[in-house]
Amino acid sequence: MERAEYLLPLSRPKVGVQGVTGSWRIRKPTINYVKCIGCGLCWLYCPDSVIDIEDVGSRFRVSIDYTYCKGCGICASVCPVKAIEMVKEV
Amino acid sequence: MPLTIRDLPKEKYVLPGNAACPGCPEAMGLRYVGMALGSKAILVIPAGCTSIIQGLMPGSGLSFPIVNVAFSSADAVASGVAVAKELIAEESVVVVWAGDGATADIGFATLSGAAERNDNIIHICVDNEAYMNTGIQRSSLTPLGAWTTTTWRGKTEPKKNMPLIMISHGVPYVATASVAYPMDFIEKLRKAASIKGFKYIHLHAPCPVGWRFDPSETVEIARLAIETGMWVLMEAENGKIRISPPSKPYIDKNRRKPLKEYLERQGRFRDVSNELIKELEKEVDEYWELLIRLSSQ
């Protein structure tokens, strides 16, 4: 196996291959859990897989991984109840 | 029964911290490929934005098995991979994930060849309507009037109609999809995976960098393309064209939004004249009429 790795330019899946992409962010998505209805649409549309959903019965509990979130704001734009607000980073 | 978010697998095939731009439609599309096909998918990727998203060796931002190949050879390589997998009797779905350049321009020869041989692969064209990876140069899938770095005053030629070209090849399955309608795309991918032979899916992917809009609007712009009728979701099984549910309301011309709404949201159409908008509207109407005629046969 090691020999093959040496001969072929093989890449292995790695989280954070481009470094801590959270540093690219200029606007930070913040979830208002009072408004959130747990539909999971933000998870569905997030291009970077940084939104995680956990099934809690009838709805999803949503959380964002800010280490890698690039702050594009798609989650805020697709949220049907506008529970995600884009807050300017310092 | 329609798909719901609960039915979709939660494994990550596009890993956090990849090299995609914020708001990238290709990363979104790749996630849907992962949700639809899971670990059975083998991707063949020619040069393009996706090779950038993967990041630098020895790491990869995508957790699919991937073969990176030269620009024009993607479908030929995929045909070989599919045959090899069949020989060792391993179940897999070989997917060519190519941009519009690697589909309609540079890679068209091998694409057409694989379609003609009816090789058992899925070709997905991620259509962001220009060569975004190298700096927004025009491709044959750039629409009429769009600004790119090589068409400063707007493109003077209309967009090539790839889905109809592929239907003309007589392949078993051709479909169009959009990143704004993931469930539709996932269902089409699963259907394509169940069919033997050559499958072609054309995915409309609005690029915030090249189309000049805010990264947060990727989904809205993609949805507007459907609502204005500029992009039509349809599928053709054995040449029989059917308009897909998200596009069905827009068969009626009066229910389509004015094209201007779609164009004015994008900086690349900033300089289009009213005559050109009329010409684009005419193009859209004519395409719809053709599709309606073909689908009613």
Brief sketch in words of this structure:
Chain A is α+β, with helices and mostly antiparallel strands.
Outline the structure in words:
The complex is a heterodimer of chains A (90) and B (297). Chain A is built from three helices and five strands; from the N terminus they run αββαββαβ. Chain A has 90 residues and is α+β, with helices and mostly antiparallel strands. Chain A has one domain: Alpha-Beta Plaits (2-Layer Sandwich), CATH 3.30.70. In chain A, the strands form two sheets. Chain A has a two-stranded antiparallel ribbon. A two-stranded antiparallel ribbon of chain A has the order 3-4. Chain A is globular, with a radius of gyration of 17 Å. With 297 residues, chain B is α/β, with parallel strands linked by helices. Chain B has one domain (11-295): Rossmann fold. Helices cover 37% and strands 14% of the residues of chain B. In chain B, strands 3-1-4-5-7-6-8-9 form an eight-stranded mixed β-sheet, sandwiched between helices. The longest helix of chain B is centred in the last third of the chain and has 22 residues, at 274-295. The two termini of chain B are 27 Å apart. The mean pLDDT of chain B is 93. Chain A binds chain B through residues 9-21, 24-25, 39-41, 43-50, 53, 55, 60, 65, 67-74, 76-78, 86, and chain B through 5-6, 8, 10, 12-25, 27-28, 31, 54-63, 182, 208, 214-220. Strand 1 (12-13) of chain A pairs parallel with strand 2 (59-60) of chain B.
